[in-house]
Amino acid sequence: xxxxxxxxxxxxQPGESLRLPCAASGFxxxxxxxxxxxxxxxxxxxRVSNINGGGGVTGYAASVKGxxxxxxxxxxxxxxxxxxxxxADDAAVYYCAGAETRGQxxxxxxxx
Length: 112
Known about the structure:
Helix content is 0%, strand content 52%. It is mostly beta strands. The strands form 2 sheets. Strands 2, 4, 5, 6, 9, 10 and 11 form a 7-stranded mixed β-sheet that branches. Strands 1-3-8-7 form a 4-stranded antiparallel β-sheet, with no helix packed on it. A hairpin with a 2-residue loop joins β9 and β10.
């Protein structure tokens, strides 16, 4: 069974850091490009970042470029999103996606 499980969400203050892991199973993780998307109430879903299978090519939405970093550890079948200097607008449910599936999401709340 193809499965993606996000974790690491929670309450973070503006300016702090948060790392979201996404554990993958049921498929050859390194063969697939992966991405992070987010959904905030009342807003359209936004593709936050993407990464190729080898991890050497990445892309970012303009809204997070320079603050967020996507990475992957293919030996551990895990995708990451490092969130630095989060803002109130970054509050959302974050999903990892790839291999024609997505996880259940993890909630990130940004508040002082």
